């Protein structure tokens, strides 16, 4: 978490979501995007939710990343309470494997958008990249870091797959 | 809507949900359960949501019925903000036919329950019956009305089906 | 299980459901709600089902919690046979992960309601909390216990997530 | 419905299911299988369900066909209460298109079988054919009728499709 | 497998299905129902499929139980080729957990029925019980065995669940 | 249907599938690919299925397109009985909208492939295009026709959408 | 479409998607956000896709909104080819009602994000609002327009539902 | 990988897909079909995708096999850029078990076909067999090898299942 004024607020519904969201936080750190990380439970701490969302813009945040699982109301309720762009990360749930999380986040009614990413770790990383892409529109430093990140990613794709020790696969 | 002090607060996310929820209101009226009906949008009127939920118990409400569709956050957010029992009605959505509404309402995390009914009209009627069953525990008049309602329902089931004009069926 | 006259009857379809339902029983115990726990299989002991349901109100029960998996008929059949409020807990099934249990419980036709909770452990805990919320309407002691439980839950949510030993996550 | 002693009992959860089940009754009639048709609602007439199922074998029934929709408990509860073979027809439900009906019927736990057919009209016809196939094992007349029915069916399949008036198709 | 003339033919699509179907074979053995067990792959041994199905009735078989996974065509193709009652067991598949198996078996078009049981082990046991119920219609010995099996099953349901060593549950 | 020796055999499970498959036949005609069209029901005409599939290569067919709905066994059974490439078209079913058709066709076990296209009309057209692409590998005339078809398709995509009379959309 | 330098590029896979996307274009117009509208088919005009995406940033675009249905590859491929933020709108498909569109858009692998909105019209409107929220971070005029839009939306929610002519509802 | 001029190009979206696709490569090797194996990520290496697809026919490739997971755009984008037949293998994804991969590959719009195989290892093997079947149309050596492969497969199916050490099964 950067010491600079956070530009991205990453919130999650519970401690258990951190195992997913931390991959997003690490990506923000790699891109040197100042950010903060908080637990805000829509259901267990609704007042904290209201305070976090309604104060976010004034506190200087520019993008909110919210992850939650199951009946995941956190991203949508944040989006209802702040004009800032909100990106949602469906955390994989136990029984339904995140399909409930995904639908609870992405199927917002017209009027209150949540830009939703993939279920789980990929979604957390991509929420960070999307937040960086938004900030990069007016922050040359982040734009440069993001372009470099994408170039490294492309360069890292080998041309031919290699056999690995654990080659068994269903 | 009864003139007496409402015991059931029926809320819905938008005007369009009324076509579903009204079947529940009619059932409450049949059972002579005092109730009120309100539109409270979790996403478009989040402050109204907070006020409605936090004031419900003090205003004398005893049960809340909440219906919403899509990423349906209304029942769960009400349940987060009031200790009263909350019953949720998943309204049938356009594309996903209420599966999104159902999962968004029923898959609440441990700690904040929403008693969820079926998708659509059946769920609205059943939310009313369940609310009446709760009130009937300590209200002899409602208990009697509910018992009679159930007896009439049983008596109304014919023994043999009858052919109807529109017999085509897929 | 309290020694007092049980107010909540918790039933399940088989011994294997106890691993899920016991979390609900523990929650009832935490709230000091008098309850009993029974195995009642709709399919293997249908006569026991009829006897349990038809005698429940007269025996002093006020709420029934029923958990079952797969083609889960127990909650709905109880609701058909007693005017008491019935709350259903879909137990996670092996192949379909509880989606079959959920739909079998929640999609009740108009006329016979089952207030359905989430699949699995969360649903069991929430069924207990919802039963307590119903009883709390007219039982000051349970109301106080439930309010305290909810306050402790809110207070227990940390502001910032902590890294844990097993940080790997898919 | 034949005047002879019914060998197949066809039951359905409500009048509205008749639009589906009647196709099965017509098939039984085509095969000259003596049968009766009844409405038995597991949820609205549970006592009728118990009486119908427990008396079926003694009354001379040999196969039961049961159709229901949504949280369809009728086939499974009949199977719990009679040793006769029970075949289930998932009636197409409004919101979930019979997926809830199908899972509620087919996912029975070990110990109480329901032989489940397809959702809707095809399932109703096939339940009749399957009941006839069971009776045909020891009834030469039905065996002959069923063989002829199957031969006619095979013979009726044209070799080349023909264009029809309403050729538009999505 | 009984030495007597087999009355039930149990077939499966591959060796790997035996882990599921064997539970059905064990149930047939418990009920002393003469049966045979074969591997018949609709896709890898289509000629064996044709031979098995077209010769089944003449060989004295009275019921066929067929289990397969994924795009499970075995039960339906058998039903297309024999007038005997066919009961299908959807074997749990790797990726889709048997939902593909279930739909491939149950959704047969009008004209060719497959009585479908639950996904996996429960379905295999229930296919055996359903086959026995069919045979019991005209075989007093099997009828008695089946009634006893069902009574033992009912009697084996404890009234109260017991805590077990491995009490953790998701 | 071309008068030349058919190279593509298009088969479907019933007359009702023609409304879908005809779009594929029209595409084959546009590309001037000699083809034949037949109804072959895996379930109602299994012997016709065996004859068609086992004789296909000797008769000079080079690709088979097979469309069916519900528990769609036709494509897979053809693929079991001929070494020719088989392409499957899942026809949209009534209740489950072709999801059953799709899984019944695509989830073939290792050893017997069916190249599966999209549900419905798009799949029928694409099966024709894929068959043409296969033939085009060694048929210059078809290759030229296919390239031209693809170029026309690309050229036909307007740069800017136009408003249409029926602009309402859900 | 504004005459000013477009800041938002709205693209769709085909003319038929315009019935959905136009609601997003109208929302952008209401907020006075300069934008352009184009048809870019990933599958039928892949070169146009490459050109549009690779030139977008240099042409002054700041956000891309992309809508497509079925196997919807347009949003993801655009995101692969431009560092600009891409928001995806799953267009409702015929058979699978947009579930295929949704999963094809939202389940992007780590490294290439698409912020995904709801299926259909609501998603199109919300993509426009999210794009506006991004631009509003550094454009006071758009920020003011967006705040006003949200306030009007909140103010437009009536407190009590009204009966309407077409009150029937499933 | 054969030293001869490759006729089949097998590509996959990432190194992790190799655990699935290698089963297809092994099958091609068993049939002695000259092939090459490459990693081509539609999202991380879009330019490599364009080059691979547009150059494939000129380089002498005749069939392309493409495997990818999640929002799997690789097969469809290849099919958009080459007239060669493209066969798609949905790789099993973590959360949604390959249902997302399947729908992203199979639900292509009319005009650009991808012949889709089963999710996972079975699909990889079958893509190889289908590619061989296409080549076998004009390559006697491959036709002979494929026929032999299929005969060995049929011969390898035992008539009776055998008990195995690990007989437990859910």
Can you give me a brief rundown of this structure?
Chain A has 170 residues and is an alpha/beta fold.
CATH class of chain A: Alpha Beta
Which two chains form the greatest contact, residue counts included? Answer: A-G, 38 and 38 residues
CATH fold descriptor of chain A = Rossmann fold
What's the number of structural domains of chain A? 1
Estimate the global geometry of chain A from the Cα principal axes.
Answer: globular
The protein's oligomeric status is homooctamer
Helix-and-strand structural type of chain A: alpha/beta
- How far apart the termini of chain A lie comes to 39 Å
What Rg of chain A, in angstroms, do the CA atoms define? Answer: 17 Å
Give helix % range of chain A: 40-55%
Strand-residue fraction of chain A? 5-15%
Q: Strands of the largest sheet of chain A, in order across it?
A: 2-1-3-4-5
